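@channel anyone free to eyeball this complex?
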Amino acid sequence: MKYTRIAATTVAIALAASACGGDKKDGADTGKDPARLKVWMMGDGTPEQTKFLDQVETEFRQKHPNTDVQVKYVPWPQVATTFQKAAAGGEGPDVTELGNTDVQSHIEQGNLLDISDQVAGWADAGKLNKTALENDKADGKTYALPWYGGVRGVWYRTDWFTKAGITPPKNWAELTAAAKKIQDAQKVPGIGVPTDQTNALLSFVWGDGGDIASKQGGKWVGQFTSPQVKDAVSYYTGLITTDKVAPEKYVGKNELQGPQTDFALGKLGMYIDGSWAYAQMKKIAPKNADKWAVFPIPAKNGGNAPALAGGSDVAVWKDTKAATAAFDYATVLNNAKNAAAWADISGFSSMRSDVRFSDPRLGVFTDIAANTKFAPISSGWGEFEQSKKVVPNMLKAIVQGKPIDDELKKADEQANTLLNP
Amino acid sequence: MLDTASAVGKAPDRGDPPGPARSRRLRPGPYLLILPALAVIAVLMLWPIGQIGVMSLQKIGNRQLRGEPAENVGLEYFRTIFADPFFWQTLRHTVLFAAVAVTLTMTVGTLIGLLLNRLGRRMANLVAGGVLVAWATPPVTAAIIFSWLFGTTGGLVNWLLDRLPDALVGGGWADYNWFATPLSTYTVLTVCVVWQACPFVAVSVLAGLKSVPDELYEAARVDGSGPWRSFWTITVPLLKPIFMVLIVMSVIWDFKVFTQLFVMSGLANRDAFNLSLYAYSEAFGSLNPKLGMGSAIAVVLTLILLVVTAVYVRVMVRQGETA
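replying in thread with the prediction:
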C-alpha cells in the first residue's frame, strides 16, 4: 500500500516537472498545422461568446482540420499578471485578444509577433479602421489587428426622465440640472462619478476641447494644467463636492464597484458605462431592463463629447510555433460574417468599415462611436493608468479637498515621465 | 531558517562526549539528517531571496524575463525609493498597522484563550471550533466577506450603523465609503486581520495555560490575590516564551499583509498602500512590469523582517540560557 502511494506520488511529481520544463519555444514557425492552437480571450466569457467562438473554430478547421483550438478566458483584472507569466514561463497563447490601450505596452515589452507581411497579404486589411490600426503599429511595423471597439455613454432611466420632464442633456449645465431633478424627485443620487474611471474624465476633457497630454517634438507633454483640463476636472469633481449631485461613496472605486449595481437596482439616477453593461444589469435587475436608455456624454457647450475608443485587438504572441495558423485564426475571427455576428452578440462596434449593428437599440452607441479619440498612444500608458493610476488618484485627492492646482501640476509631472518611458 | 542554522552550529558540541579521549572526528550523522530540510529551504527560500536581491539591482521587464540580458542599474532603485516621500508613507502605514493589529490580536487572542480555559470541556470545544473557522478562512475569502460587510451597496455594517440612533454614532452612515480614506480603510483591514489571527493566539495561549499547574493559582488565591493580579504575576511570566513567539510571528505576518488590502482597497487607492502593495503595484501592476523596482521594495521589507527575526532569535537564545 505504502509503496504504491510513494510510487504514485513520485510519478506525479515527475510528470509535473516534465510538464513545466518540456515546452520550450523559440518562436519558429514550422509551417505545419499545429496539434493545438491556444487562443486567449479577455473577460469572463459568456455562453453566447463561447458559442460564437465554437463557430469560429468550426470555420477555422476547414482550413486547418488537424488543429484543435483551445480557448481560455482571462478576466480583465488579471490581464497584466497573466501576460507577464506568459512572457516569463513560455506558457503563452498563440493568438490573443488585447485591450487596445495595452497594445503599445505589449509591443514595447516584446510580447507580440511582427505581422506586417501577413497583414499586407490579407485582402480585408483595407477595411479596418485606420486610426485603430495606427494604434497597433510601432516603427512602421504592425503587431495587431483592430477587432472591435466600445464606447461609453450615460445610462439613464427613461421613466424617471419622463416623470421629471427632462430630455437627455445636451451640455454640462443641463447634465447637472438633470441629475439635480432626479435626485429631488426620486431621492437617489443623481449621477455616479467614480474617481477610478479615467475614460469618463477623458470624455469631459475632450468635450471641453482639451487633452491630458500632447505630443511635442516626439515627446509626450502633460497638459493637465491647461485651462480646459482644469475646467473639466473641476466640473467632474464638482458634481460630488459643490453641486452635490453625485455621492462620495464611489471615491476610490470604478464604475463596476457600485454604480452599475446601484443604477440597475434603481438606487442611482445616471452613470457612465458601455453597451456591454446592459447584459450585466439585466442579470442584476431584470424587471428594470426596459427602462434603461443611453445618451452620449455631452460636451461643455453642446454636442457629443468625444468618447474613448476602448476595445480590443487581436495579436499573434511572439513565442508561438504556429504563426501561420495563428494569423489565419485572427482573420477568420474578424472576417465580415463573424465580425457582424460578434457585433450583434457583444454590443461592441466592429472595427471593420463594412460591418454595422443590426439591432436599432444600439444605434446610440453607433452615433457615439462616430466621435472617438484614443488615450495617448505611448507604451507608458500601461504604467500611467494601471499601476500609478495617475488620473484616479488625482481625482480622489481633489474630491477629498486637496488644492486642484497642486494635483494638476503633480499629474503633469507624472505624465511627463511615465508617458516617455 | 535561522533556527536551523543555529542547530547546525550546535550539533557537533552536543554529539561530542566531554572526554578528551575522543578525537574531533567529523560525524556525518546529524548533518545527513538535516540535509533534506536544508535542501528544501535552500530551493524554496534562499534561492528566491537571492534572486530578489539580484533583481533589485537590475532593470527587468517582460523582455528580460524572456531572456534578453538585464541592464545593471546598481543601487538606483534604492536611491529612488528612499528619496520618495511615497515610500515613507507606505512604510508608515505598514508599521502603524502592524503595531495596532499585533496589539489587538494579542489582547483579543489572549482573552479568548483565557475564556476557553475557564469553559467546560464541551463548551470549550464548541467555542474553539467556532474561532478556528475564522483562522481556517482563506485570506481572499475573508477579504471578500469584509468588503461586502463594509460595502456601500447593501453592506451590513453601514445598514446597522444607519439604524442606530444618530446621537450614538452620528448620521450619514448609509452611504459611508470605508475605502475612501487610509484611516477608515485600515480600520476595516485591522478588524479583518485581527479576526483571522486571534484564534491562533487563543489556541496557543490555551495550550500554555493547560501546562500551568492549578496549585499556583490556588496558592495565589489563598494569599489573597485577585484574578487580575494572578494573571500578571503567574500567567504572564510563565507564558512569556509563548507570548514572545506569538508576538514576533504576528509582527512578521502583519508587516506583510497583502491579500486583504489588495482585495478590499485595490490599486486605485494609492494613498492607502502598504509596502507589500507598493511592491506589487510596481512589479505586477501594469503591462510594463518594473520587477527590479518591485524587488528593491521587497528587499527593504525583507531586511526589516530580518531585523525582527534577529530580535526574536536573540530572545529565544537568552531564554534558553536562563531556563
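from a first look: The radius of gyration of chain B is 25 Å.
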